[in-house]
Amino acid sequence: MKYDSLLNICGCIEYAGTSRSLLVFTDGACSNNGNEGARGGLGVFFGPGSRFNLSERVATSGVPTNQKAELEAVARALEAVRNTVIPHRPRTVINSESSYDYRAVCDMTHMRLIIATDSSYVVECLCKHMTDWSKNKQGALVSKQGQLVENSQAFLRLQNGVEELSMVGVQVANYHVGRVENKEADGRAKASIPGDLLRSPGRATPYQRPTRLSG
């Protein structure tokens, strides 16, 4: 089974005439990365003051790592859009239009969801490698060489999230951004982990007032 449908995740397929986009920043963090006592956290940033912003600890199987935290952040962003943003969008569109019909409202709810992350690992796996992976008999992802893909279940979860959003008119694209551009999600990821282990000079903390709206 090939994952050609995941071309959607890299923005290769677009809804004709759709100019509506939602930009969401994600980041994962991990103290004592990959070692005993490691603690993972994630941050999702929709915009200043957004009720959809997230700062959460990461519960993963095995020892937490940066990669697991980064993948969990993307998964939580997809879930937030599917479960909280999308249900409110038709009402928002209807309230903004003086006249409408059902078909027009459905068309207007189609949009692109742009997931921005500073993790080259996440973007390269989703946009370059995943279409070459297949499922083995145990339901795990393997490479062309038959090697088990690390964090296989996390990638399958992302695939399911993308497919669910596609069914409600949302096209997902992933983009790699720099750490400066991703500072709001970064701050929220670090804030979810107790202590000051992850804070460093010159990096934004979650307690700074956001300076720009993204999305």
UniProtKB/TrEMBL annotation:
Keyword terms of this UniProt record: Endonuclease, Hydrolase, Metal-binding, Nuclease
UniProt superkingdom: Eukaryota
Domain RNase H type-1 intervals: 18-194
SUPFAM superfamilies in UniProt: Ribonuclease H-like
Region (Disordered): 185-215
PROSITE patterns linked to this entry: RNASE_H_1 (PS50879)
InterPro entries: RNase_H, RNaseH-like_sf, RNaseH_domain, RNaseH_sf
EC number: 3.1.26.4
Residues passing through the membrane, by range: none
Biological process terms in GO annotation: DNA replication, removal of RNA primer
One MF term in the entry's GO annotations: nucleic acid binding
EC supergroup of this enzyme: hydrolase
Catalytically driven reaction(s): Endonucleolytic cleavage to 5'-phosphomonoester
Family named by the database record: Belongs to the RNase H family.
Protein's name according to its UniProt entry: ribonuclease H
